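Retro notes, item 3 of 5
We never archived the inputs for the zinc ion complex last cycle. Fixing that now. Sequence and ligand:
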Amino acid sequence: MASNIRQTRLKAVFKAIVFGERQVNNSHDAQLFLEAVRSQELPSACVEMIVSHPPGLDAVRNSVRSNLSETFIVSHTLPFLEYLSDPGIKSLADGELLAQLLVVIANPPTLWKALVNLFNGHQLPPDRVHPFAWLALELLSLPQKAEVDVLEEVQAIIQDKSLLKSEDHAARELGYRIEKVLQLRSSSKPSMQPNGPGGRHDNDSDTFRKIAIYPTTDEFLSTQQPFYRTAFEVTESPVEKRPAIHLDNQFRLLREDMLAELREDLQVAMDVKKAKQSLLTIGKLQPVALSLTEINLSGKGPRYKPCTLLLRCYHGLGFLNKMTPEKLNKYLKDNPRFLKHQSFGALTRGKEVIAFAFIDRDRNNELLRQTPPAVCLQFTDPSSFKRALLALKLPNAQDVVQFKLVDTPVFAYEPVLAGLQAIAELPLQDLLINPSGTSSAFVGLPQLQPLVSALQSARSKMVTEKAEAVCIGKSITVDLAQLDSILHALTKPITLIQGPPGTGKSFIGAQIARYLHKAGQRILVLSYTNHALDQFLEDLLNVGIPQHDLVRLGAKAKSTLRTVPLLLSEQKGGYRRTSDAWTMIDLLRQKAASSAQELQKAFRTYGKAHTGWAEVSEFLEFLDHPLPFYKALLVPTDSNGWKHTGKKGKQAGPDYLFQRWVKGEDAGIFKKQISENSHAVWKMPRPERQSHLDRWAEELNEERLETIEELARQYNEVQSKLDAQFSDADANTMRQKKVIGCTTTGAAKYSSLIRAAAPDVILVEEAGEILESHVLTALAPSVKQLILIGDHKQLRPKINNYSLSVEKGDGYDLNRSLFERLIMQGAPHTTLQKQHRMVPEISIIPRVLTYPDLLDGPKTSDRPRIRGLQDHVVFINHGKLEDTDKVLRERHEPGVKESKKNTFEATMVLECIKFFGQQGYSADKLVILTPYLGQLRVIQDLLRENQHDPALSEMDKLELLRAGLLSKAAAKVDEKPLRVSTIDNYQGEENDIVIASLTRSNESGDIGFMSAPERLNVLVTRARNCLVLIGNMGTFMSSKKGGPTWRPFFELMKSHNHLYDGLPVRCEKHPEKTALLKEPIDFMKFCPDGGCTEPCDVLLKCGMHKCKSRCHRVIDHSQAPCHEILVKTCERNHKLKVSCDRQNDNCRDCIREDKEQERRIKRDLQLEEDRVRKEEAYVKELQEMDDELDHQRRRNKYLSDEQIREQTLEQRRQELAALKDAEIRAQEQVKQRDEITRRVAEKAKRRAKQTTSVEREADSQNPLGDLPDTAEGEWSYLKEFDGASSKPMDALMSMIGLEEVKQKFLDIKSKVDTAVRQGISLSKERYSCSMLGNPGTGKSSTASHLVF
Ligand SMILES: [Zn+2]
Ligand SMILES: [Zn+2]
Ligand SMILES: [Zn+2]
Ligand SMILES: [Zn+2]
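Structure as it came back at the time:
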């Protein structure tokens, strides 16, 4: 009960302290806190909590230092350390959290020193030695950058063996481990060697762990031979120093391999050397911004990336701006290598390398779309970043600083080199370093013991019964060598299985993996190529390892359909972070955010780089110089702290003196206040002042850049910690997997994930092709067993620097695989013996040359012979000389850099391929091999030129086509391309038929890298059924270096009659007909269709004609169409030529005629149809028109009727009105006449009475007073007053006499006038005037006037 309460209280204390609510102020607090920590049930969760809360770390820092007494340390501090040794803590974030805690504990080393003293004074009780030893080991293994140095003390402890004598077994075990670590740690410096490591340049160190992976300018410029040892020197070094020396040398050699290529690429980039291809150079670079975050697609806040510099590029990328967005996208898609993400390059100034950087491409290529385009560079480290910024800032930077991309695959080196540097503990160290030494005690896992016993008894039974094979499980039969290999793998810490070509290495590997997996072991499977890895993982699935136990590291693009689900990215995690982990992530995010902000701020000052008094004064204040610049230029203040004022009461600014000094003036208003020792500053002439200013500006700039560098370093550190936290989910997935597969490059790249997976066993496939350093870096500390399967008699790992190769013979042996080295140094190994690949005619070659014990498996004999060929193995000897390909270069070719080609051989190869096609072999059953890239290209070009040759383009289906069993269209589908490969790249693969062009042919016996026996071995072991080699035997025989390799080969060829001067063919149909095809033209001459020159003459399908081809392979002509041309007459008497198989087709002319007829009918029909259609349309329209007309007519008629009616009415109305008018006028006339009559009467009366003048006067006032009394007068009156006019009347009136007539006419006229005036028709009126008179009285004259 009491302890429960204590537990609760301790928990409360822990929380209070970690959350900062309570501090550790004294020894008592410390004691409570350390106990509280130990009371936490889950050590990993507890540490996560402490590290994620800054007060927690403070509490640890204080607690372990609060009391250094023996009692306290023994009873509190060491138990606390014991608690920390829980392995769960180290697995957190790849050891990052433990490392943080350890740094807090060990730096400064107060506690460490106290512990060492107690240990050395034998004051630690036996059960407290373990935590101390654990601390020693962990501190020793911390990376260099942690800056915890305990090497000396630990070395002393190990040297006096006190730890190894400890009573506690666990502590002793740690002692042994520390011993090993020390062996790896100790300086590899050989005693007083004059040209030993270190001292050549700024990146040459005596310990490889301090060497920067990327070279410096000085290193590039250094002409001294770099330091590295020969393999012999390493093996001859004292055994206790050997681990460190070995690792050191592995690092230096591998790095040199990278540098050799980098050097060459840079020389090409700087135009010192001719390029194999032009490398991209960009220039006129302007730094514009820092890019620190990526667009986070999940939308959970910014995702930080390593410090990246964004540069505008005014030279070299301009052509991108001329493209439309679509064109640009297409260009980038078509040129995937152009400015590829993570491609590597150097920032250079003239011939000087300033820094190395990787291209960081944005997702959407937006930067390249800008005008001018921008690129992002990630520099390899903060100091490179600083150097770059400095170089880009200098006045002529725009003209001389460039970024040059190089081809060197640094991504393949960097993780391995970094991995080597990080190796603290090397599992299986003794056996790896000294393989012939005593083997350590591993005898296999207890759970495997029953299986091992069963296998062992099966083995002894086999030996006694001399059995060929034994069954060891469900349909699994093995021979003795295979059984021995399995037994080795189950009982030995290091297993080496040599598998000659075709002996089923993967089969054995998969069986071993199955057993170990069953026994609960975690296995890391390593391969050199993705191709081999996928194959092996598929094998593992096939032997029954469940898919959910497997995981494949690497890119999706490289995997196969079956291995895609194994990818790490395809695993559904379901991983949940603890709240402490989230707290830690938040904490790191905050740190990253503030760090990023500061860095951005610092970068902005770099952008401006102002050197005013504010900046200069701060700088001068700290300047160490004999002259008191700061004092002399500081504006003096009076006793009250006020600055002096000038003459006009104006206060002097703080830069008053500085500005005057800069301009070369005197101190102005402060002239008299200049102190004695400041005079020298003011006496200085202007140029001297300027030079001081320049130097200060430079130093200020340097200072600013240093700040940026430091901030960038801090930022990158936080960023990588954040990354490590986030990769926890992946690490968690890895922990749940039993079998991890990856390539060796991948293993170095994902080393933290592999450590998280903690594999027990590493199984390496193709081990003979893998560099030792790649295997060493993959050896996670958890590894207890290493299984290497490979063949050291085949080609070695690929390297770039020939001078470091085994073949060069200088002894550096970089390309000697771990597998080969171990076997060379006497490590026990098994060799598989039974090959299942080659027919005996081929397998005899590797048996004689390389593997004397090689046996043929049961399925290698009794295979069908090669159609059309006399032999399974053919060496075609010729004397046509080689040529040089100046563009391509060969890496492994000693000295000579140009590649080789041989046109004759290429043409022969082409003809051979066609020939095999004619024999019915499909393209996937063939492979063309050649050692040289130059020749590879010639052959590829030839194939391309002839791609429409039916023998090539349809070679898979030629016979089917010929036999009429396949249509041409169907033949086009699923064509497999013909494979052409270099020998080196075809290692590990096989095919039915191999045609090889050896290429080299010269008088001098120069065969270059073809002298290597491994290459010949690979070349002759790829073919299952048929091997055709084309070459100049003389050249190979006379080679000084290669002679010993090739002479036995040719002897074998000769003794087995495989040597020919051409391709020995024979007709499948006429076996007695053979030919030797020496020249390409011979193929056409002697077997144009793949058989012999005889006509085929087989009766075709038609039963009338024979096959026209020259003799060929296909016998069955029953489906073959007959192409014989016949002349025949059809029913309509057409004469025509037709191929036989088409003779029953209808006559072409008939068809044409019929077609013509049909066309005509069709045309007429069409015409008639048109006519009818038009007619119908016409009728219809006409009818409509008529309708319309009729309608319109009626409308018009009605309208005119209406008008007539209206007119008539109007007429009547007018007539009526006229009549009425006439009536009125008539009445008026009557009145007038009456008046006139009256007046006439009166006149007559007056005339009679002799009227007075008064009366006359009165008369004259009356208008009618003067009425005429004659007709003539009346007419005049009418004319004058009534508007009348008429010439006939005038004429009449002018006649003399005829008064009565005149009067009569006047009357008539009056009547007519009245009628006209009243609109009365006169037609019915008759105006007659009979003129009675004597002849000559003017009757006719009058009448002639009577037309009014
Ligand atoms: Zn024939
Ligand atoms: Zn025919
Ligand atoms: Zn035929
Ligand atoms: Zn016809």
